[in-house]
Design goal:
The protein is built from seven helices and eight strands. It has helices spanning 2-13, 16-45, 49-77, 82-99, 101-116, 182-197, 232-248, and strands spanning 124-127, 130-137, 141-146, 152-156, 163-165, 169-176, 202-213, 218-226.
Length: 269
């Protein structure tokens, strides 16, 4: 008992506990001030959401690394063999790596996305069949707001293999009948293009020519440029309304696929 009390006394008479406390206090003050400085720095430079997000992620990684080094420094002060700790951590790391391999894949994929920037927050993308605007991006998941349903979809970064950046240009096929003469067709397209150009959110609309010949109709292609990709569903509905309106004001009807049945007659003697 006396030896234990003497060891406690010697410990507090040494500089070890004071260096430990000082290291802890310096770390706390440093982290608080650096985080406040980072927020002020981002605010004063008016960075984009994506750049601000990346800076905060880098700061968190650096803070974790510094905390780890401070921990090993304190352990070394207290006579702990840091080399053996590293060895033990290596074995534990292997076990944890197998158990958390999916999370590690997410982290690696997320870090790759942040560095290479195939897409950023605010982009309208197509990922794994989902089309929408990127709302949030971190090391583990990517969240997008779906274009047609406005649902928020969370996708694990390891599952992102191919990303398509959605263009603000859409090519719209307008059906016309084979019975319609070319002059009437062009006159109707001219009226449609003029009305479509007046739709709010459309910056340009022009006729691109004949797109394809189908069994029961001819598709004429119109190129439409939109200002906000997230308004695409609403703009498509308005374009459909324009097509219906122009057809209603004409003597023609919208063509549709026909099923033709041919019967072969046989003479029975």
């Amino acid at each position: 008992m006396e030896n234990f009390i003497l060891s406690i006394k010697d410990y507090f008479l040494s500089s070890i506990p004071y260096i430990t406390i000082a290291s802890f206090l310096v770390g706390v003050v440093l982290f608080k001030k650096s985080r406040r400085w980072l927020k002020n720095y981002i605010r004063s430079h008016d960075y984009s959401i994506q750049t601000s997000h990346n800076l905060i992620m880098i700061y968190n990684v650096l803070r974790f690394t510094i905390c780890l080094f401070l921990l090993f420094f304190v352990l070394q002060l207290h006579g702990v063999n840091v080399s053996s700790v590293f060895s033990a951590l290596g074995v534990i790391g292997i076990v944890v790596g197998f158990a958390l391999q999916d999370a590690l894949k997410d982290w690696i994929s997320g870090f790759n996305i942040l560095i290479n920037r195939p897409f950023v927050i605010g982009d309208v993308v197509k990922i794994n069949g989902y089309v929408g605007r990127v709302k949030n991006l971190d090391l583990y998941t990517t969240r997008i707001e779906e274009l047609y349903t406005e649902n928020i979809v969370t996708i694990s970064n390891r599952e992102i293999a191919t990303v398509e950046i959605v263009s603000n240009v859409i090519f719209y096929n307008i059906p016309f009948s084979y019975e319609m003469d070319l002059k009437t067709c062009h006159e109707m397209i001219k009226i449609m293009v003029g009305k479509i150009s007046l739709i709010e959110g459309i910056s340009l609309c022009r006729y691109d020519g004949t797109a394809e010949f189908l069994d029961s109709l001819i598709n004429q292609r119109v190129r439409v440029e939109i200002e906000d990709k997230m308004k695409l569903p609403a703009i498509k509905r308005k374009i459909n309304d324009v097509i219906l309106e122009v057809y209603d004001q004409s003597e023609w009807s919208i063509p549709y696929n026909h099923l033709t049945v041919e019967l072969e007659s046989h003479l029975v003697k």
